[in-house]
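Lecture 7 notes: from sequence to structure.

We start with a single chain of 45 residues. Read the sequence below before looking at the structure.
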Amino acid sequence: MKKIFALLVFGLGLMFQLAAQDAPRRKRSTQSQIRKSYFQLNPRN
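Now the structure, written as tokens:
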């Protein structure tokens, strides 16, 4: 279970890095989208 979560976080980080390189303007919105999806997946945190 932890391995899957680590892979998910790694994939999100990679995607975020690519998005930031692609368009720095969209960086903030992408970050908030990732945060939203993260809180949807983990309501506890």
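DSSP finds two helices and no strands in the chain. Keep this in mind for problem set 3.
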